[in-house]
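hiii, so i know i said id send this last week but things got crazy w the move. better late than never?? heres the sequnce for the chain we talked about at the cafe, plus the structure i predicted for it. fair warning i was half asleep when i ran it
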Amino acid sequence: CKLKVIPVITHFAIFCKAKSKKTLAKSGVKNVVLVDGVRTPFLLSGTTYADLMPHDLARAALQGLLKRTGLPKDAVDYIVYGTVIQEVKTSNVAREAALGAGFSDKTPAHTVTMACISSNQAMTTAVGLIAAGQCDAVVAGGVEFMSDVPIRHSRKMRKTMLSLNKAKTLGARLSLLYLAILEYKLRIGTFFQNSEFTSHNCRGIKKKKYIYIQVHLNKLEYCCLNFKCGDVIVTGRDIVSKDNGIRPATMEQMAKLKPAFIKPHGTVTAANSSFLTDGASAVLIMSEEKALAMGYKPKAYLRDFVYVSQDPKDQLLLGPTYATPKVLEKSGLTLNDIDVFEFHEAFAGQIMANLKAMESDWFGQTYMGRKTKVGAPPMEKFNTWGGSLSLGHPFAATGCRLVTTVAHRLQKEGGQYGLVAACAAGGQGHAMVIEAYPQ
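okay and structure toks below
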């Protein structure tokens, strides 16, 4: 299957001057920079990408990154990709996509998985390789292909199918087939320890169901106007020029939607959830020294980051609440120092739960061992170009979108520090501080 890759305009003609604040550079530690980032358009699963495979999308993102940056293919020391719902035919999708994109076969590649923060893990793995002096240039990314997820037979059926090889007669084989119970099990976004959909964990969180969605509806026009300033490439057998999941709707239309999981009184609906999405992303991460030597103008510094985890039973999606104060303390910053916030949005209820927990002295004292609350990001700085609810959420690709969006927003808005935070299945979370590169 051939993919047509066309980079689109991603730069503004005029950038604001960044505020004058202290830099987070550390003596004796390499500066690691984000040179550039791209992504495929994020599409509703089952639409234009439906006949492709995950490595097709990842390959397209890699090819787009090569075209955008003009990077020599043999200049990359390592490639690492994240994915969540794995295609068994291409278990190391990083390697499959890299070879398909034309990278040197001498360039190692591996795949990581950490639920919705898989490409965050890929990026911080790249940062670690560079900081340790093992590499100078690493490509990181993530891909998710929800149009074709593995659907398993029941365990009893699988055992029966394996037993067919030992059956000696046709009658014995027919008997095995007759006795088998055929069950299909499709589990997307579940956590094994409590077998609970992440969306179920949002139940009871929000009484005002649509508040956060209304915020996004008010920002949709702005989001669409700024679409090409982000990190988009075009790919596919058909030319795909934009995301197709943005669904403008009225409050009245959204209020009529039925609950997706807990019926009839559930609050999670198609209007306040990130939709099943196909897409891929890729970023070029380098040591500052190497980037400048090759003539690049980096977009941002990748600074401190943390990973957190907590009890998935009742705190499954609260990773941002736990990770944000830790990464700020590690960086010596406060919430007021951050100019740009980009939080992953799994569900509106998940975001509202985090914002409420961050504003709660009781939660900070009871669950986090703090004297006071964390404090919530101001909405005027928060996900202003649209988030996972409006743009889509290809699980493993979202992290790179968040980081690249922060870099672009810092350039456009004249800020110096941005903060990315995300939750992940299993009660885990991630946060990273990004510093604008001097213009």
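btw The chain has two domains: 32-149+273-436, 152-187. thought thatd interest u
miss u guys!!
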